[in-house]
Amino acid sequence: MEGYCIRLKEDLQGQVPRGRENLGRTFGSGCVRCGKREKAMGQRIEDTVTVITGASSGIGRATALIFAKHGGTVLLVARREAALEALALECEAAGGHALALPADVTDPGALERVARQAVESCGRIDVWVNNAAVTLFGRFEETPLRDFRRVLETNLLGYVHGARAVLPWFREQGRGILINIASGVAKMPQPFTSAYVISKYGIVALSDCLRQELVDVPGIRVVTVLPGATNTPLFQQGANYMGWAARPLGPVADPERVARAILSAALAPEREVVIGAGVRAGIALERLAPALRDRWAARWVEQGHFEERPVAPSSGNLFQPMPEYARLRGDWAQPARQPGWPWMILGGVLGLCMGVALAGRGR
Ligand SMILES: NC(=O)c1ccc[n+]([C@@H]2O[C@H](COP(=O)([O-])OP(=O)(O)OC[C@H]3O[C@@H](n4cnc5c(N)ncnc54)[C@H](OP(=O)(O)O)[C@@H]3O)[C@@H](O)[C@H]2O)c1
Q1: CA dist 6 to 19, 113, 136, 240, Å?
Q2: For the chain, first and last CA: distance in Å?
Q3: Ligand 1 midpoint to CA 316 (Å)
Q4: Which domains does the chain have, with CATH numbers?
Q5: Which residue numbers delimit the Ketoreductase domain (predicted)?
Q6: Which ligand 1 atom lies nearest to the CA of residue 252?
């Protein structure tokens, strides 16, 4: 089968995108370009058309590669065009089909064009992964408001824009999977990253609201993925007003681990996918003993999330992408120093005991 998608970009130049009226014609009969036949959702990744935002680095990049390795068609969205083009070639070499569609997720029109181009090229969208995000380290009162707002615009409104771009097509198709990548911090807050945490809480709420609003179309599924600390360039690219270089907090997973969970969600969608025992323990503790967690969170985060390496205040990649970090991994294979981590496990166990004791007393 020819690798149509790289060339397709040239094909599309100057064309008026096909409207939704053509969807019925192409949907069910396979891709308009390569003639791939549609399969029932969740059966075979090789027959799946997936849009991935934030594909130029980290988890999005790993997700594109794993879908491609399984023969899937991936439409790659981010701002760093050269990185997307290079990734598209890697995806083709891995056995998939890929098309780079540079776009800024803060622009709703840009994501509408992405959705339209996806349908234009492949006849349908099976899976849309909202994944693009930025982060911001700093004390709440010392963080520039402009940066705070940009995090919410990218992480939360970016997902809203993605959902609004794809849901009309899903409704038309009667099916589709929307996967929203949140974070463990969406259910266990942490200090010095408040804009990021707020955006992640909002993403869980967005998924929950959409799930209820879409009950009339059972073929549309909404999945929230909650990864823990992952070895990606997120921390190097992030805005930083703490004065110290940031690093992942807690045990660090490989981006491929999260990518595999996203692949599973595309095959067998669930409401929520929590990745890692540490995230589960943290969420349990937050539910059972929030005041206890409040007390040591600040110390734990300050010690574990930052290195003893001073950095100048910076808005990182919030407004302009950073080409040097267009890669799969950050530089943290294993945590160097995580003094609070054993305490977190202990806290989780204590919280669990307290919860069980309180539940017993309530009977
Ligand atoms: N790494 C972790 O520890 C961790 C933990 C839990 C959850 N997560 C979540 O996992 C997802 C992926 O993060 P990651 O760790 O892989 O970070 P990353 O390597 O920094 O990747 C972020 C991606 O978002 C894109 N992006 C940022 N701003 C954008 C914009 N305005 N428009 C379009 N794309 C934009 C970036 O590409 P461009 O700069 O080229 O636009 C990049 O591809 C995020 O939702 C993150 O919150 C990460």
Answers
A1: 22, 17, 34, 36
A2: 64
A3: 12
A4: 4-362 (3.40.50.720)
A5: 48-232
A6: 3
